[in-house]
TrEMBL record:
Protein name (database record): Nucleotide-diphospho-sugar transferase domain-containing protein
Keywords: Membrane, Transmembrane, Transmembrane helix
Domain Nucleotide-diphospho-sugar transferase residues, every copy: 439-659
InterPro entries with a match to the protein in the record: Nucl-diP-sugar_transferase, RAY1-like
Amino acid sequence: MKAFQAGLWSIWLSGFILVGLSLYATQRLPSLKEQIDKPKFNYRGSGDSCSPKITIFSAPSPFTGSTGARQGLAIRSWLGLAPNITVMLFSQDPSVVSFAGAFGSRVSVEPNIDFTFLGTPFFHSMVARSRASTSDICVLIDPETILLPDFISTLNYAHKLDHDWLLIASQQNVSYLPFHLDEAGKHWLREDGKEVTTHKLQEIFTQTWQWNHCECRMLMAWNNGDVPLHTGVLPPFLFGKGVHNHWVINEAISSDYRIVFDASWTISSFYLNDLQHWSNGSVEGSSVSDFQKRSWEYEGNSHLGALYGSLFFHEANYSSLLKLFKCDGQYLFVHTAENIVYPFGYHNSVCLWKGEILQSWRKKKALACVDVIKSPDKILDCSLKDQLKPSIPLPFPFSLASLLSVVADKNKTIVLAIAGNSYKDMLMSWVCRLRRLQITNFVVCALDHDIYQFSVLQGLPVFKDPSPPQDISFNDCHFGTKCFQRVTKVKSRMVLQILKLGYNVLLSDVDVYWFKNPLPFLYSFGPSVLAAQSDEFNKTGPINIPRRLNSGFYFARSDGFTIAAMEKVVKHAATSNLSEQPSFYDALCGEGGSNRVGDNRCFEPETNLTVHFLDRNLFPNGAYLGLWEEKNVKAACVKRGCLILHNNWISGRRKKLERQVFSGLWEYESSTRMCLHSWHNKKLTTYL
């Protein structure tokens, strides 16, 4: 072994073979023996002359006011760096679409990722969409970060590394920028119109060179190969709300799939200091109290950072992170904790091994470079471990009334879902489907603490039932059980409460799959009409026969007749030993159907409410026409013109889930806590 090591030292000295490098999961660089034993990576050098395709991904706020101006300046600085750069903006805001239109194909808008009900994008969905792109290099960046040309040269260098990598770079905080970009976005000009060289700009910012790895604003880039960034699952962090950058870096280092290095010394990036209007933190012009109301988003990220991965138990040390530095025009990887410099692809570079000079070319210059990197004011360590909170209750600040005012549509209509923790995956599949249909006016009533916490972390508008039913079974809460009876009686009680607050309600069980938005059709029923699904399964005959009103899907208007009728239902259900559904029929259609009118209606004489049983071809239940047994359920329903399809008339949670997942009417990936999108690889994991 000694002879072999001596031979290797000789090869290094002659400069014919490039230095190998591997990283421990603990961030320690390998010893000489370990470099022999472990796989190596090399630098391909100038032999690969193709410019990599670079896509910069970001999630801007609406392009209004000073925030819009800062974002516009930043994006123009990105596009002016090189023609091989394209930009993808994650947003559903029309102002972002309008802004992107001015740049043609170089700037696109991607609305199909996951957002919270307040419009905050999910970081894990942004990363997944970036990974699904065809770019050679993906860059994730804050929308107000301005980039200078050394960004391109650094990425070009990293692209030639013969190994998968993850690059990070902290941004500088600039309080005043006395320059502006020309119309082409390629040259920076002084206030008097004279051009400022890139070198001069970098020199100016170097004089006030300070950053903090703990800040949310951090540039991340990686080569877009098949190797994942880290082991395990990226939790549903909210973008720009803390923890997520630090968490990814920590897991990437621990996983040892990629070289992880800090390029803060070779990438000049900065943002204008405007704490009052930080994009992704608050809306332009919002007050301090508004910002405090959104503290739950930061608390949620801290909660997730503690529950997922290893950050809560083992935190990487930034001071020992491999750093990329440019010395005398040449790139060097530096491990400051052990005084090691790794030159890749340059035979005349200096290599220090624990203080020993292996080559003396420009020795003083190299040592001076290392001293600059190790300067205390250039290395700011970061620790977030104390901020991680695994068991705190999340401070979700919304009451039912405040949620309704935020999410209701222009007709003051709310779509209401009620769920317990046993149905959280089905709830999310239902939510994802509504999101795909661009239906946002829904709220969730949580039957227990677990589903409430889950819904908050998933960005749902959720409220707690003030008098939740007890002893809700995880698997045995299906039709006919005592658990089912307790749960169903919550629905009419919550609907009545919302009606009294002045909002129309479409109550939908989470096992109802929506093919189209049914609200335009349901609005055709006027006041004092309750439109409900029929549970009748026979193909012919009346659909309003006794006990065939399905209380899992109905539309109720907020008018005096409907409110009075719902009060009758709630009162009847409170004294019944059965579920809510029989109370609906008996209270409104009369026991035995004494209030029936024709084949599809009932008339309640005390309140003057008409109950209309919906056409089953448009609103089929789970037993009608055997639709769930069709080889292609979706095609059969679309052909018939279904607006929804209810996954009822089946006993047991597992069987219900199996039927919906295997039919293809499933919109959620539980392993990643992410909605399935058109760009997503739809490989469903086990849900049961």
